[in-house]
Specification:
Elements: E1 13-22, E2 32-33, H1 41-44, E3 49-51, E4 57-61, E5 67-72, E6 78-83, E7 88-93, E8 99-104, E9 109-114, E10 119-125, E11 130-135, E12 140-145, E13 151-155, E14 161-165, E15 174-178, E16 184-189, E17 197-203, E18 206-212, E19 219-227, E20 232-239, E21 242-247, E22 253-258, E23 263-269, E24 274-280, E25 285-291, E26 297-302, E27 317-321, E28 326-331, E29 334-339, E30 343-346, E31 353-356, E32 362-368, E33 376-383, E34 386-387, E35 391-393, E36 398-402, E37 409-420
Parallel strand pairs: 1-37
Antiparallel strand pairs: 1-31, 2-29, 3-4, 4-5, 5-6, 7-8, 8-9, 9-10, 11-12, 12-13, 13-14, 15-16, 16-17, 17-18, 19-20, 20-21, 21-22, 23-24, 24-25, 25-26, 27-28, 28-29, 30-32, 32-36, 33-34, 33-37, 35-36
């Protein structure tokens, strides 16, 4: 990006327009103000937010309101907002990616949104309050009730109930996950007690029970992310203090990825083999990244806790966009964006800033090493096309270089990061919204 400023007389000054040159589209992980939907585990398991698998778009509903927003997955900025009905608890994409289904619990309806035009296409009236919605094949929806503990198969056009079941007597709320082809669903109990998960096949508009858990997955369910291709579900709950790994074949516990007290969320970037989790303790919080193949910890990023003691927040919201290569984390009043790959951002002087007087002064670049740090990376700084001799300071994660003597006027500073990675990622064309 390029930005330029003018020169103010009569002061003797230098103006630098900063150009950040990157080998991938990135954002530096600094906190910026953003709105956070209060939708913690006790309401809906954070199913109000969804990353589009083929577009750099995040869909975020507002369970305590009546709207759904389209967010830019690179920046977290709201691009557009549409009214979908009171209490939107869960969102899911149709199998062809054209429609977004929204379970509007307070309106007793499923709202269908056109993803391209970002408008409401139709509203499916229901005879119950929906909690969790997932798209199936052949014009089918899987929907759980917010109050009756029933899971249903619906005709996605008419809302007609084709089949229903109660996975467990007396259990009021179930969250759903559906396989990409819609032939399997997971139902997991939304409760502060024992975590329970069951797997069902779906055939001829009927549910067929296939497997249940072994009552060894902890308590106080928070959130789940499913890698259907790898056959593993990742879930976080109040205990244990990490990310649980569950086999999709038989729901047996495979192990865990240790974090620390009070896990709050989990997200996947499948094509990079990365699972991300967050814990929020009374006095600290961290974002954790693990390699799903080796189970090795890749990095841990400290997250500020507010307030600092005596309170465990349940207001964090976590989502990962594989297309944008970003992880978006909302905490109280703040949005952080972290990139999977390394990036740089302007240090000093800031874009369009004024440098008063003559050198010496430093041109600096803040360096983010990435959630998945490559074997090597090099950050360089240039002014008006001339490379400078920069030195990396690991304490500040900053590269600084002495600026040359420059005439009064506008000048261009470039920060560039080059790196190599060895995990092949399929090429794709990314269109910003």
């Amino acid at each position: 990006m390029t930005s330029c400023g003018g020169m103010t007389q009569p002061r003797r000054c230098l103006w630098l327009a900063v150009v950040v040159m990157l080998s991938t589209v990135v954002a530096f992980p600094l906190g910026v103000q953003g709105s956070k939907t209060p939708g913690g585990w006790s309401i809906n398991g954070d199913q109000e937010i969804l990353a589009d698998p083929t577009r750099p778009v995040i869909y975020e509903a507002y369970p305590l309101g009546d709207s759904l927003s389209f967010l830019d997955a690179f920046t977290g900025n709201v691009v557009s907002t549409v009214t979908v009905g009171q209490g939107p608890m869960s969102v899911d994409l149709s199998q062809d990616g054209s429609w977004l289904y929204v379970a509007a619990s307070g309106a007793n309806q499923t709202t269908v949104v056109d993803v391209i035009s970002r408008t409401v296409a139709r509203k499916i009236a229901l005879s119950f309050s929906p909690l969790s919605v997932r798209a199936g094949p052949n014009d089918r929806l899987y929907v759980s009730g917010a109050q009756d503990g029933i899971v249903r198969i619906l005709n996605a056009t008419t809302g007609l109930v084709l089949a229903e079941m109660a996975p467990m007597p007396g259990a009021p709320r179930w969250l759903l996950e559906a396989s990409p082809d819609g032939t399997y669903i997971l139902v997991h109990l939304l409760t502060s007690g024992q975590v329970h998960i069951a797997k069902y096949g779906v055939s001829a508009d009927q549910f067929v029970f296939l497997a249940g858990d072994n009552s060894d997955l902890g308590e106080n369910f928070m959130q789940m992310a499913v890698d259907w291709a790898a056959g593993i579900a990742y879930l976080v709950s109040g205990t244990p203090y990490g990310i649980e790994m569950v086999s999709l074949a038989n729901l047996a516990r495979l192990g865990w990825l240790p974090m620390w007290a009070y896990p709050q969320g989990v997200a996947l970037i499948r094509d990079r083999h990365v699972v991300i989790g967050i814990h929020r303790n009374f006095y600290d919080a961290d974002l954790w990244a693990f390699d799903t193949t080796t189970r090795a910890q890749l990095t841990k990023v400290p997250i500020a806790v507010s307030p600092g003691s005596g309170y465990v927040s349940e207001e964090s919201l976590l989502v990962a966009s594989a297309v944008a290569g970003t992880v978006l984390l909302w905490t109280e009043g703040e949005l952080r964006i972290l990139t999977v790959d390394p990036s740089v951002s302007p240090g000093a002087p800031a874009p369009d800033s004024e440098v008063v007087g003559l050198p010496p002064f430093y041109v600096t670049a803040r360096v983010w090493r990435g959630l998945v740090e490559p074997p090597s990376n090099t950050t360089s700084i240039a002014v008006d096309g001339t490379a400078l001799n920069g030195v990396y300071d690991p304490f500040y994660n900053e590269v600084r270089a002495p600026a040359p003597v420059l005439p009064v006027g506008r000048h261009r500073a470039c920060r560039n990061v080059r790196y190599r990675r060895f995990d092949p990622v399929p090429p794709r064309t990314v269109h910003r919204i």
